[in-house]
Amino acid sequence: MTAVADTRVSPRTRGSAKDLAGTGTLLRLALRRDRIMMPVWVVCLGLTASSTTGRLKSAYDTPKARADLVVDMNGNGSTRALFGAAFDDSLGALTVWRVGGFLTVFAAIMSLLIVIRHTREEEETGRQEALSACMVGRRAGLTSALLAVGIANAAVTVLIAGSLAGQGGTGALALGLSVGLTGMAFGGLAAVAAQLTENARLARGLTSAAVGIAFVLRMAGDAAEDGSQGSGHLLVWLSPLGWAEYARPFADERWWPLLLIAVLAAASTALAYSLVGRRDVGASFYATRPGARAAGAGLKGVYGLGWRLHRGALLGWSAGFVFTGAIFGAISNGADEFLGDSDQTREIIQRMGGAQGLTDAFLASMVGILGTTLTVYTASAVLRLRSEETDQRAEPLLANAVSRLRWGGSHLVFAYLGPVVVLAVGGLALGVGYGVAADDMGGIPRAVGAALAQAPALWVVTSAAVFLVGVVPKYTAAAWAVVGWVVTLSWLGPALKMPQSVMDTSPFTHLPKLPGDDVTAAPFLWSLLISVVLTAGGLVGLRRRDIGG
Amino acid sequence: MKTAISASGLHKSFGRTHALDGLDLEVEAGEVHGFLGPNGAGKSTTIRVLLGLLRADAGAVQLLGKDPWHDAVDLHRHIAYVPGDVTLWRNLSGGEVIDLYGRLRGGLDTARRAELLDRFELDPTKKGRTYSKGNRQKVALVAAFSSELELLILDEPTSGLDPLMEEVFRECVAEERDRGRTVLLSSHILSEVEALCDRVSIIRKGKRVESGSLAQLRYLTRTSVTAELAEPVNGLTDLPGVHNVDIRDRRVKLQVDTDKLDGVLRQLTQSGVRSLISTPPTLEELFLRHYQDDVTRTEEGAVAR
């Protein structure tokens, strides 16, 4: 057959008013679909700040107490890594220090979820095709998604600025804008990611990785240098989340870092627009390549399938932990220089990282951050089992000669051993990062060992998720509540002076603070025992219950 | 004859809904058995019980002489299942999925696989989501037909197939039957069932309401008769088993219970038959009769309340 060249291909439009036809209707559709999710996000983001002000006011009720707090916290590298520097001792500035960094991260996550949901996910499910067949322009989908996320971020900005106005109108506006603009910047990056891949899950992953990188850069820079003294650390300046911090709301505001965030939002949005007009509906710039005609030797059974389904996440998390571990390791050399020596600091270090040498304490708290973050990975690996079921892929698979335990095992091996692999490479990177900075490679085995010691506590979270999937499959989403609880306790618990009985509900609280602390067998054995019991319960449930959405 | 599937008194509830309400089903070895019922009648629930994915609340069930709940893995070496809505993994090609299923069932015939790919005109190099609905069905069908198995359980397998591919599917089912395999075919497409099945079971609201060979079932229902006569005819309405008589001058239309056809013909020939059309009941009428009964009964129930 000879190919006939067709020269009448219509040129890609450069953009016109017709491209936006139907935007208003799509925007109303988006707001209708998000009528619960969006208000919940907006209210949580908008009111967290003012409620924190109230808590701080009662906990640190004298100017002296607040001034001491600022000195202590700015003197401690690991709390600076978590929260950023405190720029002033007013209630407004302390509020920004305590929650500002988290608000920008969560505004970014909210925005990327909204944008991907209304762009790539619509295309991937084929719904966009049906809409595009109506009076809907080429750029209407993207425009309506960006307008929806713009409305959400504007509402967050107004709520924050309004509710904190009592602490000073200018500072309140600066915080509101820093949160809202950060949301828009990552919304714009999500819009670009949505053009690059056909896979909504991957688009979300790419943008989340961008948020993660920005957060780690800010953490590393803040850990290494107290930003309230001097011009700030280079790593913080490399992160959009750092720009929001260095806008210094309630502390002699700097407005031009906010301009940087606005420029990022505008540039990413413009890039997404130029890309969207040049491609087909449903297509992407990195199209799916054709696959193999026949299965290779690796795809022998359900374990081969499990590897194919989990390898992407495993490699992604490993890469992220190598990056994060290396940076944490590098900045931990010289931790003793920037740790203060007041009683309060000592107490907080003790709670977070134990009382040993200050560098060890700092490393231990970083290991703790790595370990608790991995609960997100292990929970999502377990929940993949459930989504295989609800997406109706499990039934045909189990109609083959595959036992339920084998099928479960093909996912759970990644949920249990995946985190161990990630911890090992993260610990190795931590040790190497420290070793390069301190010119002492002898600490690598200790760093790897300390990281691996987190595994039993992680497995408690893993097995809680397994128990949910096996016994109460309708409520598997509760696994995310477990993850949220454990992460919140580990990250915020020590600084919020949570009572020990509350802290004890997290398995991570019971682990020795490694490297440095004395190792006893009991906490590991208890973690293992709880994991085994919950896992066994979950697997028995999985064998006995009905399969299906 | 050996029984491939036997189920009796199956009950299954999901919360307040009774999906199965004492369902019986017998499928003989070597037959193609049609499994009919309106949406929500419990067809897919029955099939999931047969596959050991759901556990029946009550009742007995055996496939190939084994309990599908306790002996699921052993049993599944001899069974292929094609769901009505096939979902594939986005990063696996169709060819990989076919091979994976083959390996999980204990082998597949590579020559047959190649032949089927050709007949179904399926490109095995595409990945999960890039297949259309019909092509996803083809992936599962090729996987099922290229394995060496005793029993095929097909749950509305042709949804999304074009008429040409539907024809290929029918040929494949016929080949399976010729090789002595048993097929349970759940379907909405009555012409498909009529063309392929030896026996059918009709279920409604989780109960079997009819079962038998197509010939037997036809015997139970009415034949439509249209005749043009030389003289006017009398006494037709008084004959047993005659319904919906419509006489216009010398043209007669009526329906008659198939076992009472003889008497009607005798009466008609007395008036001199000029032309005669007699239509045996289609499966569609059979099906609709049960379905409409259901509708009327529900309406009556609503009025009574």
From TrEMBL, chain A:
Keywords: Membrane, Transmembrane, Transmembrane helix
Transmembrane segments: 36-54, 96-116, 145-166, 172-194, 201-221, 255-276, 313-331, 361-383, 413-436, 448-470, 477-496, 524-542
Flavoprotein among keywords: no
Domain of life per record: Bacteria
This protein's name: ABC transporter permease
Organism per entry: Streptomyces coffeae
From TrEMBL, chain B:
ABC transporter domain sequence ranges: 5-230
GO molecular function terms listed in the Swiss-Prot or TrEMBL record: ATP binding
Keyword annotations: Antibiotic resistance, ATP-binding, Nucleotide-binding, Transport
tRNA-binding listed as a keyword: no
Record membrane topology: Peripheral membrane protein
PROSITE patterns named in the record: ABC_TRANSPORTER_1 (PS00211), ABC_TRANSPORTER_2 (PS50893)
Record-linked SMART domains: AAA
Pfam families: ABC_tran, DrrA1-3_C
InterPro entries: AAA+_ATPase, ABC_transporter-like_ATP-bd, ABC_transporter-like_CS, ABC_transporter_ATP-binding, DrrA1/2-like_C, P-loop_NTPase
Subcellular location: Cell membrane
Keyword Cytoplasm (UniProt): no
UniProt xrefs under SUPFAM superfamilies: P-loop containing nucleoside triphosphate hydrolases
Main location (coarse class): membrane
PANTHER family assigned to the protein according to its UniProt record, in alphabetical order: ABC TRANSPORTER ATP-BINDING PROTEIN, ABC TRANSPORTER ATP-BINDING PROTEIN NATA
Protein family membership: Belongs to the ABC transporter superfamily.
Protein name according to UniProt: ABC transporter ATP-binding protein
Protein's organism: Streptomyces coffeae
